[in-house]
Design a protein that fits this description.
Number of domains of chain B: 2
Number of strands of chain A: 0
Largest interface: A-B, 41 and 40 residues
Order of helices and strands of chain B: HHHHHHHHHHHHHEEHHH
Shape of chain B: globular
CATH architecture of the largest domain in chain A: Up-down Bundle
CATH class of the largest domain in chain A: Mainly Alpha
Helix content of chain A: over 70%
CATH topology of the largest domain in chain A: Four Helix Bundle (Hemerythrin (Met), subunit A)
Number of helices of chain B: 16
Number of helices of chain A: 6
Number of domains of chain A: 3
Strand content of chain A: under 5%
Radius of gyration of chain A: 22 Å
Strand content of chain B: under 5%
Shape of chain A: globular
Largest sheet of chain B: 2 strands, antiparallel
Radius of gyration of chain B: 24 Å
Strand order of the largest sheet of chain B: 1-2
Structural class of chain A: mainly alpha
Number of strands of chain B: 2
Distance between the termini of chain A: 84 Å
Order of helices and strands of chain A: HHHHHH
Distance between the termini of chain B: 61 Å
CATH superfamily of the largest domain in chain A: NADH-ubiquinone/plastoquinone oxidoreductase chain 6, subunit NuoJ
Oligomer: heterodimer
Chain lengths: ~180, ~475
């Protein structure tokens, strides 16, 4: 009896955690789109990325969650804010999109949302998500991830490293100070 | 790998869970959430806040004594209650927000700076079973992630103050923190590669055989990586000599210029907590985590685990936690010591040191450590009683303990280098202690002049 109550409590707890972080992610992303101040937009993006990292934690993918925080919240986002600070003429830049742009964005967003919902419903109907849920004590062992990266997926790994190198060289060239002649 | 001997059959619940809830299957999600919340509320929050208070007092005392003055000594014995008095004052201060500042972001920034640092305490291994989650397979990486999110809080603080000095401080800080994350990560990878896991609990367990098993003595490359990590961690903490973001003499107070009262205090909680976390990582990864130099804690923990002696395990855990906190506090003291000793370089010199000195050095260490592990694995966790290095012949040899169980693959050259490094490290440590003692003894005349009322009142320059 106590065991059954505890099992229900576990499910309730899991559901509550998921909904809290999903609401935070959805709300912050709405804030990213709707806010006019560009730094507030970046802050809402920080909360979105953090909430998505929390969702990864709930799926027992803690390495991926840590990577999300390091790469996105601690790297990409800081560089975005850096770019804002270096290039904006006044401290609080306000963005005012034109009405035509807003209409086009709403239409495209609605189409993408419909496609996403249709895809998820089709996958659920085909039974793709009916596997056993992961016990909360196990998580994907990180050394297995390393072995897979250097074993089964070696070619994509190397291609991605070359791509990153090309990107770095391109960025360094573009950011090079030009001599005024 | 050598982890076969370390992963003994573990009961489903950890020692402290068994102490509170009795034996059984693993706690479900709901109970472990409640248990986790209770630990955070009653153990981690008081620890972090008490740590910040003591660290602030210690910083002022250390600064004072290094500058031939006394530091706070009026409020409470030796000025110990000074932090409490400061806290009360800061809470009672007027809540000022600059008129043109972005009010929401201004209020939000201290929390975005403090919360990740506080969350990183969840992954620190205070004792063999005193880890918030012992199956956290990427604990070290999580701490790195939390420390990188802290940078965002500092940038928000600088930007939302609507103040040129704050923005300059925030920009410098962003540059510094994100560029120093690279040698920081690479030097940590050197240590991780030697052990083979990111789990801080396993890393601590591996260093349980005595002083020579501490990871810093494993490899000459890990030895140097410790110092590279120490330097990079000083920069990522905005700690002197890399404290340009809050350089007091140049930028008023950098990104903190417009902050006063409790919000300012939050940034300093974050700074001192981050100092402890960084010290904690160094201790867990390089300096033997919760183990004493004689390997007693490892021995007794294994013994109590084998005979399932829960009270004994709890005592061992508490002693181990004390040792961990003491070692991390020594590193925090060294950070404070450096602050009042070294001058501050310019921002371009800071970045030069990162990109042209520490980064190539870290890459060389990474390659060297990888080759070393390939050619001369020295085996880790071998306790004193089972050390018979002269009986190992050949490049690698399977080491067994006195009962005949397999411990590790080791090579005689690797073990010889390990023991040599241990002697070198011990010698350095004792030399520094001797130097400090010598300075203490010869500084007697200065201390006498500071504390003897007769000498101060006369106003004549004292001899010596």
């Amino acid at each position: 009896m106590f065991g059954m109550v505890l099992a229900q409590q576990n499910e309730v707890a899991a559901a509550v955690l998921f909904y809290v972080f999903a609401a935070l992610a959805a709300g912050s992303s709405v804030g990213v789109v709707l806010s006019r101040n560009i730094v507030r937009m970046a802050t809402c993006l920080l909360f979105t990325l953090g909430a998505v990292a929390a969702l990864y934690f709930l799926l027992a993918a803690e390495f991926l969650a840590a990577v999300q925080l390091v790469v996105y919240a601690g790297g990409t986002l800081i560089l975005i804010v850096f770019g804002i600070m270096l290039t904006s003429k006044s401290p609080f830049v306000r963005l005012e999109p034109r009405r035509g742009e807003v209409m086009a964005a709403v239409v495209i967003g609605a189409i993408l949302l419909a496609a996403l919902v249709a895809g998820i419903l089709a996958a659920v109907n085909q039974g793709l998500f009916s596997g056993t849920p992961i016990a909360h004590d196990e998580s994907y062992p990180v050394d297995r991830l390393g072995q897979v990266l250097l074993g089964d997926f070696l070619v994509p790994f190397e291609i991605v490293s070359v791509l990153l190198l090309v990107v770095m060289i391109g960025a360094a060239y573009l950011a090079k100070a030009r001599k005024r002649s | 790998m050598a982890f076969s001997i370390l992963s003994l059959a573990e009961p489903a619940r950890s020692v402290f869970e068994r102490f509170f809830f009795g034996d059984g299957e693993p706690l479900g999600l709901f109970l472990s959430l409640l248990y986790g919340a209770a630990i955070v509320l009653f153990a981690i929050v008081p620890f972090v806040l008490g740590l910040a208070m003591i660290a602030i007092w210690a910083e002022r005392k250390v600064a004072g004594h290094m500058q031939s003055r006394l530091g706070p000594n009026r409020v409470g014995p030796f000025g110990l209650l000074q932090s409490l008095a400061d806290g009360i004052k800061l809470i009672l201060k007027e809540d000022l927000i600059p008129g043109d500042a972005d009010r929401v972001l201004f209020r939000l920034a201290p929390y975005v700076a403090f919360a990740p640092v506080f969350a990183a305490f969840l992954a620190l291994p205070f004792g063999p079973d005193m880890i918030f989650e012992r199956h956290l397979n990427s604990g070290l990486f999580l701490i790195l992630a939390m420390l990188s999110v802290e940078a965002m809080g500092v940038i928000l603080a600088g930007w939302s103050s609507n103040n040129k000095w704050s923005v300059y401080g925030a920009m410098r800080e962003a540059c510094q923190m994100i560029s120093y994350e690279i040698p920081l990560g690479i030097s940590l990878i050197v240590g991780v590669m030697t052990v083979g896991t990111l789990n801080l609990a396993d890393m601590g367990r591996v260093q349980g055989g005595g002083l020579h098993t501490w990871l810093i003595f494993q490899n000459p490359f890990v030895f140097v990586a410790f110092f590279v990590y120490f330097t990079a961690s000083l920069a990522s903490n905005k700690r002197a000599p890399f404290d340009l973001p809050e350089s007091e003499s140049e930028l008023v107070a950098g990104y903190l210029t417009e902050y006063s009262g409790m919000r300012w205090a939050f940034f300093f909680f974050a700074e001192y907590a981050a100092m402890f976390i960084v010290g904690g990582i160094q201790v867990a990864l390089f300096l033997g985590a919760w183990h004493d130099p004689f390997g007693l804690i490892g021995k007794y923990h294994a013994q109590f685990t084998q005979y399932d002696n829960v009270p004994g395990l709890i005592i061992v855990n508490l002693i181990g936690a004390g040792i961990f906190v003491a070692k991390a506090s020594i590193i925090v003291f060294v950070q404070m010591w450096l602050r009042w000793t070294l001058p501050r370089p310019r921002i371009d010199q800071v970045l030069y040191a990162c990109v042209k000195v520490l980064l190539p050095l870290a890459c060389v260490l990474l390659l060297g450590a990888a080759l070393w592990e390939l050619l001369f694995p020295s085996g880790f966790g071998i306790p004193w009683v089972d050390y018979h290095p002269f009986s190992w012949i050949g490049l690698t040899h399977a080491v067994t303990d006195h009962k005949g169980n397999f411990i590790a693959q080791a090579s005689a050259l690797g073990v010889a280098v390990q023991l040599a490094l241990t002697l070198v490290g011990l010698g350095l440590f004792l030399a520094i202690l001797g130097w400090i003692g010598y300075a203490f003894v010869t500084g007697r005349s200065i201390r006498k002049r500071l504390t003897d009322p007769e000498e101060i009142v006369t106003g004549e320059p004292a001899a010596g």
